[in-house]
From TrEMBL:
<dbReference type="Pfam" id="PF00150">
    <property type="entry name" value="Cellulase"/>
</dbReference>
<protein>
    <recommendedName>
        <fullName>Glycoside hydrolase family 5 domain-containing protein</fullName>
    </recommendedName>
</protein>
<dbReference type="InterPro" id="IPR017853">
    <property type="entry name" value="GH"/>
</dbReference>
<feature type="domain" description="Glycoside hydrolase family 5">
    <location>
        <begin position="67"/>
        <end position="289"/>
    </location>
</feature>
<comment type="similarity">
    <text>Belongs to the glycosyl hydrolase 5 (cellulase A) family.</text>
</comment>
<dbReference type="GO" id="GO:0000272">
    <property type="term" value="P:polysaccharide catabolic process"/>
</dbReference>
<keyword id="KW-0326">Glycosidase</keyword>
<keyword id="KW-0378">Hydrolase</keyword>
<dbReference type="InterPro" id="IPR001547">
    <property type="entry name" value="Glyco_hydro_5"/>
</dbReference>
<dbReference type="GO" id="GO:0004553">
    <property type="term" value="F:hydrolase activity, hydrolyzing O-glycosyl compounds"/>
</dbReference>
Length: 341
């Protein structure tokens, strides 16, 4: 049984006021970045496990991000990494933060994720499926644990232990507690763990803001996230007008806004059209994908290419593995937004 040391009313009181959130945001500059995983990793496990952690590639690729003026990366963690080797995992997180800090980049860490492959396992990860988007990405914690609260004790240790370790680390921008919790058909089944995760985070109350991003029209999970987040994050993979309409709707909460996933070329979500909207409303912008690699996110969600050829229009990502850029006009748009010379 999980026993909370604070009452629910006390936990609610731990949420930042809108004033505090806006004062924090005013100090962050123009938040611009990408969801980051090195091109040599297929998923969160391969990124952080001891035998596949790749600081050389991380350093090189974050250098490319710095060249665009990017100052934030969103990085996914995994509960199994903490369970397997807590000290080693925290050490590798620290090494990532050191590398990012060298490039003047802060990290937005993600604890849990409901997307893509279920039943994650430690050890050697699969090779990419040819032409398939995110063929090896894994959920955290996965259905077996999500539906069995008797196993949540280790999840509580993971969340609280990680937060306590980095609670006052200014290299961490913020904590994203749960990515798209109602995805993969979970819908309302995600709510108990989603609520618990906010309770665990608010018990620790790190110096950085906590959040979870609304991403669709699922009212119940969105309500939990909006009611408990210090800052409001959201996902929008649609055209610039849709993006602007969503931003206008979220402004009523009076809190800082960060779009923690956007940019899907096939769906008319482009740097050139979305970045001016983000600037107009002072909204942070974190696109999906930096370097094309083992995640195969140049391919669209529902359009695999069995021959493995390069799609005529990349879905995500900015750079090739050799550092060359996919579209020069996109890089120009990003640099204009970040005022990078």
């Amino acid at each position: 049984m999980i026993v909370l040391s604070l009452s629910i009313s006390t936990l609610k009181a731990q949420k930042w006021s809108a004033q505090k959130a806006n004062e924090w945001y005013a100090k962050q500059g123009t938040l611009t970045g990408a969801n980051f995983i090195p091109s040599t990793a297929i998923n969160q496990l391969e990124m952080f496990q001891a035998d596949t952690f790749d600081p050389t590639t991380i350093d090189r690729e974050l250098g490319w991000a710095e060249s665009l003026g990017m100052n934030v990366m969103r990085v996914y963690l995994h509960d199994l990494l903490y369970e397997q080797d807590k000290d080693g995992f925290l050490k590798r997180m620290d090494e990532l933060l050191k590398i990012a800090d060298k490039h003047h980049i802060k990290i937005l860490f993600v604890f849990f994720d409901s997307c893509w492959n279920d039943d994650p396992k430690l050890g050697k990860q699969p090779e990419p499926k040819t032409g398939v988007h995110n063929s090896g990405w894994v959920r955290s914690p996965g259905t077996k644990v999500l539906f069995d609260s008797r196993k949540w004790g280790r999840l509580e240790e993971y969340v609280k232990g990680t937060l306590k370790h980095f609670a006052n680390d200014n290299r961490v921008l913020a904590w994203d507690l749960f990515n798209e919790p109602s995805n993969s058909g979970y819908v309302d089944a995600c709510l108990p763990l989603l609520k618990k995760t906010f309770e665990w985070a608010l018990e620790v109350r790190p110096s950085q803001p906590v959040t979870a991003a609304i991403w669709n029209n699922h009212e119940l999970s969105n309500q939990v996230m909006l009611e408990n987040s210090d800052i409001i994050t959201f996902h929008n993979y649609k055209d610039a007008q849709n993006l602007e309409n969503e931003i206008k709707g979220l402004q009523k909460y009076g809190r800082p806004l960060i779009c923690s996933e956007y940019m899907a070329r096939r769906d008319n979500s482009f740097f050139q059209t979305c970045l001016p909207v983000f600037k107009k409303y002072n909204v942070g912008a974190i696109n999906w994908g930096l370097v094309a690699g083992k995640t195969n996110t140049i391919y669209a969600w529902s359009n695999p290419m069995p021959d493995g050829g390069e799609p005529p229009l990349w879905f995500h990502d900015i750079f090739r593995k050799d550092g060359s850029i996919y579209k020069a006009e996109e890089v120009e748009a990003i640099k204009k937004h970040t005022q990078k010379k």
